[in-house]
Write a structure and sequence with these properties.
By secondary structure, the protein is of the alpha+beta class. Helices cover 44% and strands 13% of the residues. It has 24 helices and 13 strands. It has helices at residues 5-13, 82-89, 107-113, 117-125, 131-143, 148-164, 179-196, 206-213, 224-233, 246-250, 252-270, 274-286, 298-307, 331-339, 368-386, 394-413, 457-475, 555-572, 574-584, 594-602, 608-611, 613-631, 634-642, 645-650, and strands at 65-66, 80-81, 93-104, 173-177, 346-350, 359-365, 433-440, 444-451, 478-481, 484-486, 490-495, 499-513, 528-537. Strands 3, 4, 5, 8, 11, 12 and 13 form a 7-stranded antiparallel sheet that branches. A hairpin with a 3-residue loop joins strand 11 (490-495) and strand 12. The protein is extended and about 120 Å long. It starts with a helix and ends in a 10-residue tail after the last helix.
Length: 660
Amino acid sequence: MAAPLTSINLRQAFLAPVSSNPNAYGSKNRRRYATSAAFKYTNTSLGGNYTINNLPQYTRFADIRLPGRGKTDEQWADGMGRYYSEAHDDGRQQIHMTVGDPRFSSWSSFFVNFYDRSAAAFANSGQVSGLWYNLGNVGGFIVTLPLQPFILGVTGVSRVLNFLTKTQPSKWFYFKPNMHAYWSAVNLLANEFAIGLGITPRLIGKDQDDVLKQMEDPGQRVTLADVKELNRIFPGFFRKDGGVDIMALAGRTQRRSDQAQRAEKDLLQRATTIEELRAAFEQNMNTAPSDPNPAADARQYALDWFAKTNPENMGVIDTESFSSFGDLTNSYDFLVGAQRDGSQFVSFRADYNGEISESFSNSTGDVGITGTLNTKVKEARTLRMNTMGGNLTETIGAAAAWASAAVGGAADAMNLAGLSILTGSAFIDTPEYWESSTVSLPTASYTIPLVCPYGNVISRFMNIFVPLSMLLPLAMPRSAGRSAYTSPWIVQLFHQGRVQRQLGIVSNLGIRRGTGNVGFNAEHAMLNCEVTLEVKDLSKIMYIPLKGGYASNSWLGTAARGAAALVGETAFGDTGAAIAAAVTDGSVWDEQSLFQDYTGTLTSMTWADFYYAGKRLNLNLTRTVQQFRQWRSPSNFMSWVLDGDIARTASAFMQSTGRF
C-alpha cells in the first residue's frame, strides 16, 4: 500500500527518506545517519591513504571517528571522522603517478606497424580497396596457403604477447615501469632527511648525544627512547635503529584494502541467496553500537566511548614489520599487496585546479605552383606596364595586338587558353591546403600543499619531508657516477576526468618553503611547504579513426571475421561474438591510443580500465563487437551505397532537403 500523501509531504519537509521500500537506500531512519566514513578502510595516518599528503583530521572530540570497513567498534581510532570524510576526503583532488624508462621498439617492428595503407587511402581520398587489389590479395593468399597457419599463428601470438606485456611496436619508444628504482631513490632521500633532522641517531657517540638531547626542547629532538617508542607505535615505518622503511610504507594502503575485502568475501561465501547477502551487508554496515547507559549526559557518553580503546594501544598506527627478517610479520599480506600493485603508484592530494580546456588547431598553406605562376604573372604585368603594353610605335603596337589575338584564338581552339595568363592577363586562384595539426591538451599543472599540523620534528618529517622525498625524484636527473648524470624518469599521470598522460615527463617542479602565517620556527626549520608540479605530454598529436577496425582493406579478411563473429553470436550470444573477435580480429589486441585516452578522460573512466590488461581486453572486445554489429547493420550498408558517385549524381534530380 502506498504511503499517505500527508506522510510523504511531512517527510520531505524534514528531508527524511520518502521510500517505503525496505531495500531502498535511506528507507529506514537509522540510514539517515549513514556517512561515507563507515564504508572506508583508509585514514589519515602516514601510508593509511592512497595519497601521502592528507590534510590532518580534526581532534577525536570534535569529529568522532568511525572504524570503517573491516574494523570493529572498538577500533574507532583507526578510522575517519564523519565530517572530515565528507568535507575533505570525498571531494579531494588526487593525482596518481607511476615512473619508468623509455623502451625502444625495433626498426622492423616500427616500420611494419606504424602505418596502415587502407586507413591512409580512406582518410586521404575516401576510397576503399577495389577489385584489382582484392584479386591480388586472394591470389597471394592461395599461393601461400600452406604457410598461412604459420603466418597467422606467429602474428596472432605476437599480438597477444605484446598486449599482455604492454609492448607497443607501433611507437618509436614507449613507457616501461621501473617503480622499484623509484622507491629505492625515495627511501634513500627519506633516510637522508631523517639523519639530517636527528631522527636517526649518529653511530659514534650516540649515548653522549642522547644525554644532551634530553636537555633540549622536547619537540625539536629525538632521543633513543623516542626512537624505541616510534618503532613500537609504527614498526612498519620506523625501524629500531631510527631509520625509516619507505618500501613497506608504499603498499600499506593496499594491505588495508585487502583486509577490508577479506571481511566482505567472508560474507559472500556464507550467503547462499541474495536475501541472505543483503541481510549480511545490512548487519555489517549499518548495525549501530549498543548504548549501555542511555541516561548518561553527553560528556559522560563521550568519555565512555573513548574509554573503550585500550590505553596500551592508544596511538599505535599498525603492528606489521618488514624491516628485518627477525621481526618479519604479515609477509603474506606484503606479497599479496605487492602483486595487487600496491606499490606501483604514488599518489598526491593537490589543490583544486579549476576548469579544464583543450584545443585542436589546423594550419594551412598555399599550393606551391600557385605562388610560382603568380610570380611569373606579376613579372609579365610589370614588364607590360614598363613597356607601355608593347606600343613602341603605333604600327608595332597594332601588329603585336593582331598577333596576340591570333595566338589566343588558336589556343582557345585547343583548350589551352589558360596559358595566356603568362602574359600577365590574370592571377591564379587556388584554395589553401592542410599542412599540419596541433593539439593543445589540458596542462597537467598542480599545486601540492605539504601541511604540518604540529611544529615538532616528527610531525615535520612525516608531513613535509616524506612527501617531499617522493616528489623530488620525479623531476631530478639521475646519477650516473660521481660526476655524471642522466635523464630523469618519464612518468604516467592520471587525474580522473581531467588529465591523463600515458607518456610524460616532469617539465617543472617548484618548491616554496616557509609558506603560511608562520613559515619557520625559532630554530629556522620550515613548518609548511608548497610544491608546484607540471607534467608535459611527450605525445604531440592526437588523431581520430574514421571507422572502427572491423572492416579492413581485404574483402577476404573482412568476410572471414564477419562469418566467425556471426557464428559465435548465433551459437553463444555475446560471449561467442567476443571469443570470435578475440581469435580473428587483430584490433582486439591493439595498443592504447591517445584518442582513447582522451575519450576516457572525457567520460571520467578510471585508470584501471587503461592500466590492467584484463580490463583493456574487455574494453577492446566490447568495441569490436559493437563495430561488427554496426558494420552489418542496414543503416551502414545503405549509407555506404547511397554515398557513391552514382547515387550522389541521381540525388541531383530528387527533392531537396528540408534542412534549409
